[in-house]
Amino acid sequence: MEVKVYSTPSCPYCKMVKDYLSSKGIDYQSLDVSQDKTALQDMVKVSGQMGVPVTVINGEAVVGFDKSRIDYLLST
Question: How many domains does the chain have?
Fold first, then answer.
């Protein structure tokens, strides 16, 4: 399973997503879009927007901290 979290250091919802994934024992790649312009471009391509957090689970994007959607994608 591949999980990526596109985020910024000052975003409280980004921290919530990362803490939630960690609490479930999910390994993820954290990408700071405020510093990594390539990651920013990838995030916009996959989600269609500039807002963070964007969590990508096996190619499916979740915008914001949508716990039920994250749980659904983790279970498939």
Answer: 1
Structure confidence by residue, pLDDT tens digits, 53-67: 999 999 999 999 999
Residues in CB range of 29: below 8 A, 6 or more apart: 2, 3, 4, 5
| pTM for the model | 0.95
Torsion of the alpha carbons at 32, 33, 39 and 44, rounded to the nearest 10: 140
Structural domain range at position 44: 3-75
What is the SS3 string spanning 36-60? CHHHHHHHHHHHCCCCCCEEEECCE
Residue located via tokens 């989600």: 47
